[in-house]
Amino acid sequence: MINYLKNIIKGFSTILVGMKVTFINLFRPNVTVQYPNVHPLVRAGSDKMPDNARNKLNVIIPKCTGCKSCEKACPVNCITIETTKVASIDTEKPLMEDGKKRVFWLSQFDIDFAKCCFCGLCTIACPTSAIVHSTDFEYSCYDRNELLVHFSPFNKEQVAEKKRILAEEVKQKAEKALADKQAAEKAAQEQNITDSKIKSSDDQTSANQNIQNNSN
Amino acid sequence: MENHQFLFNFISEYTGDILAGVLIAIIPLALLLVYALVAIYGELKIASFIQLKLGPMRTGKWGLLQPVAEVFKLLQKEDITPDGADKPLFNLAPFIIFLGCYAALSVLPLSSHFAPSGLNIGLFFIIAISSLAVLGIVMGGWASNNKYSLIGAMRSVSQIISYEIPAAMCILGVASMAHSLDMNVISAQQQGGFWNWYVLGGPAGISKIWLIPFTVVMFIVYFVTSLAETNRTPFDVPEGESELVAGYHTEYSGMKFAFFYLAEYGNMFVVSAIMTVIFFGGWSSPFGDFLNSPIWQIFWFIAKSMFFVGLQIWLRWTLPRTRVDQLMYLCWKILLPLSMVCFLAMALGGMLY
Amino acid sequence: MGLLNALDNPINADGIILGKVEDLFNWGRAKSNWFLQFGLACCAIEFMAVNASHFDLMRFGNIPRSSPRQADYIVISGTVTLKMAERIKILFEQIPEPRYAISMGSCANSGGPYWQHGYNVLKGIDRVIPIDVYIPGCPPRPEAFEQAVLKLQEKISMEEIFKKRERVAQEDKMLESMLKAEENNFIENVNKHI
Ligand code: SF4
Ligand code: SF4
Ligand code: SF4
Q1: Which is more confidently placed, A214 or B250?
Q2: B278-309 pLDDT, tens per residue?
Q3: Cα–Cα distance between B284 and B37 in angstroms, integer?
Q4: Contact across the interface for B57 and C24, Cβ inside 8 Å
Q5: What is the CATH number of the domain that holds A145?
Q6: Interface contact flag, C97 B70, Cβ < 8 Å
């Protein structure tokens, strides 16, 4: 009986304690950050977000050498890179950001943010820090195809043009190589006529030696 | 007591009896609708503040229009009646539940000069009519053809019917002290300051002091049972999200669900109003004759009721949900004996004074 | 007399009365979004964070409902396995119209980390249900989710209720005439061959 009453009183008093806690909380200042009014960057008071903040990736194309390290590092294969060599006959002489000569055009550099898992491995793998996490996270969209972002500075025609220039150069080179080769062959033939007698006697001695080795 | 007819007489002088009756019937409905908007907003905000967050902020200033937006939203939602449902019962259930709380409003004396209907067995009427909610719940749960609805309805019915016994004990106790079932009379008896309220032993002078612990315990018992009768946390096992999707209204959508919502908040108001009348002096001012004119009485009545609605909301966001067996244990083994003992004491008080 | 004309023809594109009613209804739907309490994988953890005090999704009028019948939109928060896809479809179909869906995270968008080798993962929830807003991220930041909710509200408030009927009727007419023309062509062809 006493236990029963004790139980009741205990239950009642614990409820009162709980109500006191919630009542105090009712008047404590709230902790909410009102997002559209207060941007997280403003709240942080800087233009930086934590590493791995899961923001959109940004590719700084002038820095990118086209080495494809990021493509290999990506665990989900959501980066697609296609490079085109810069032709030496190209009138445009592109430079990297640090002043070196550019070797590859980035004819295609796509990141599919619908697949990317924002792990940041590509940013570590990149030798020139061309691919970085930005602070932009507000890019949800109504159509999934908008999440496939093309970073390449070229459109299709420009890419075709660059490819044509490269093909031309390759063709010129091939022609030149062919011409060189023919010239070389001609020279070699003249040489061959004078050397042929010595060569044939050498051949015979070596053949004799071979037969002896086999019988042994 | 003819003065509760004041408003009716006043209106019928201009419009005739029938129109006056309709107008008087509309007043509680309007009150209920406005109150529901306020209560929903209050619930959202209190819940948010207790959790140290802000609640609706972007619908009008401070989110004040949030309940209005919800009404417009619910109006447009598709009204689904499941294929396997028992259609007439399914469609009728929300209205029956709503009817229960609306009819209960009809006998509440808002002021000494106005009660929509001055029934002299008001308390009895309320006990009887609030059982209609059980009917609506079991209809909705059964007709939905959904096992979660059915289990929710069964739990709800067992809970409400069990808790009706201690609740009736509380009301009986006060009725035996007041020698009346007329809510207007009970309110009138408690005039003259909060010292005369039945929660503090009633209007019997200093000798009633031995009665105070019993009446206070009786009030607590009634408060707990009222929580259970309106299916509010901590007794909302019929709607337990973790076990039954949304209890008996799982299958309801759009406007029909809005009626369930409205009825829940309406029932909260009704039980709070009963609590106000039988324990806290109804429309009478807590300071004697100070601010006790018929207009101010409406203010006192609504303020007191809203206080208890706020208390219910506060409790909802404090306590976790009980188990079903704990619920029944609380009712049959704690509340019922307590209310019996207190009832005996109060009946004795009723005989003495 | 632009105003009077507009009043004369309330159904028309610049009808004032129905335009206002439409705005009001859209406002109601946009500002009161009840979401289904439903989480799938790791993104659901972030979804809980959005609902908690620091980010407080309720500021936008979003209240959790546990029954799909009372919800307005569903958040696909996480990896959708093929087995779960059927359930999601059922859940989505149980939400009464007008209903919306948000795809949260890479997994729901396109299979995410499992898009190549996940034999059991659905490669994009939009193969099963129509999605209104896609949120990129793995998981998305809570702020990104809030931005998506704002975007959804924007989309809802731009929707057409009354003009839609007209437009749909016009499209129906066009479709009908096209069908008729095709039918005639067919009959002509048949006649020729006979
Ligand atoms: S962040 Fe990770 S998943 Fe995304 S592109 Fe970089 S390596 Fe690939
Ligand atoms: S690793 Fe860096 S430099 Fe190499 S292709 Fe990728 S972005 Fe460009
Ligand atoms: S998108 Fe990333 S965080 Fe979200 S469910 Fe998939 S793996 Fe988990």
Answers
A1: B250
A2: 888 878 877 777 777 777 888 888 888 889 99
A3: 26
A4: no
A5: 3.30.70.3270
A6: no
- B contact test, residue of A3, A8, A12, A38 with most B CBs within 10 A: A8
Minimum-distance ligand to the CA of A82?
2
Tell whether the model's pLDDT for residue C8 goes beyond 70. no
* B51 in reach of chain A (CB within 8 A): yes
Q: Which of A18, A28, A29 sits opposite B318 (nearest CB)?
A: A18
Q: Classify residue A205: in a domain, yes or no.
A: no
Angle separating helix axes C16-31 and C162-193, nearest 10 degrees? 100
In-domain check, residue A145: yes
| CA gap B339, B197 in Å, rounded | 19
Identity (one letter) of the amino acid at A174? A
**pLDDT band at residue B140 under the 50/70/90 scheme:** confident
User: Model pTM?
Assistant: 0.79
How far, in Å, CA of B276 to CA of B308, rounded?
A: 8
CATH number given to C31-193 = 3.40.50.12280
Domain that holds residue A171: 31-185
Q: Which of C53, C139, C144 sits opposite A138 (nearest CB)?
A: C144
Place of tokens 């009808």: C15
Task: Judge whether residue A172 has pLDDT over 80.
Answer: yes
The pLDDT-based confidence of C4 (bands split at 50, 70, 90) is: very low
Neighbours of A121 (CB within 10 A): 15
Give ipTM to 2 decimals: 0.78
Looking at the structure of chain A, the number of domains it has is 1
Atom of ligand 3 nearest to the CA of C109: 1
Q: What are the structural domain ranges in chain B? A: 83-352
